[in-house]
Known about the structure:
Layout: E1 8-13, H1 15-32, E2 39-44, H2 48-57, E3 66-74, E4 85-88, H3 93-96, E5 100-108, H4 112-123, E6 128-136, E7 149-153, E8 159-160, E9 176-179
Parallel strand pairs: 2-3, 2-5, 5-6, 6-7
Antiparallel strand pairs: 1-9, 3-4, 8-9
Helix pairs in contact: 1-2
The structure holds 1-O-pyrophosphono-5-O-phosphono-alpha-D-ribofuranose, manganese (II) ion and magnesium ion.
Amino acid sequence: RQTYHDDMAKTLYTEADISKRVVELGRQIAQDYEGKAPLVLGVLKGSFMFFSDLVRAVEPCPRGLTMDFIRASSYGSGTESSGDVKLKTDLKREKVEGRHVLLVEDIVDTALTITTVIRHLQECGAASVAVATLLDKHERRRLPYRPEYVGFVCPNEFVVGYGLDFDEEYRSLPYIGVLKPECYAHLGLDGAEPDGSGDSGDE
Length: 203
Ligand code: PRP
Ligand code: MN
Ligand code: MG
């Protein structure tokens, strides 16, 4: 296999599918946050590509919209999330207090990550916290949770691209694809998920 493209069993969402949906989400968010000076908060690293496309699609852009980032990773070994989600941020409490926060995620899977981030923001005194996620893999929830803005309800498959990684690879692809089983067979994951599974591999 010469390129990342060769590792894809199929394309799930093309660049065109994604950009069409991102424009729809952006318009909805612009309407909902008019007059609310939202703090748009990207959850790194997975959300970086969706984040940059989404903020440009928030049109007409509400006055007072600002952006920041928070790093979240679940650690522990194995293929299932440990449930122990580590947050890293230099975001000060006073920057969150009283703000309408819109969290941006690439995927909500078990929901352990996003619920941890939400709890942190509530503790910082956010006026409201909502979530925009490109993918919602709701079949895998370990906690009941429904994001406010969802790009696509995603099947329970090995998805990568458009920010989503498998062991830090494939993030730069402009589309979302399903990985060929031979690409993860060596790990013996046996049908487990490459993302949202405590595999961040860099902490
Ligand atoms: C992935 C993904 C979400 C989270 C979803 O992040 O980007 O943040 O897992 O999984 P969950 O709903 O089961 O918690 P990861 O921890 O792999 O870090 P990354 O964003 O740097 O890839
Ligand atoms: Mn992530
Ligand atoms: Mg990851």
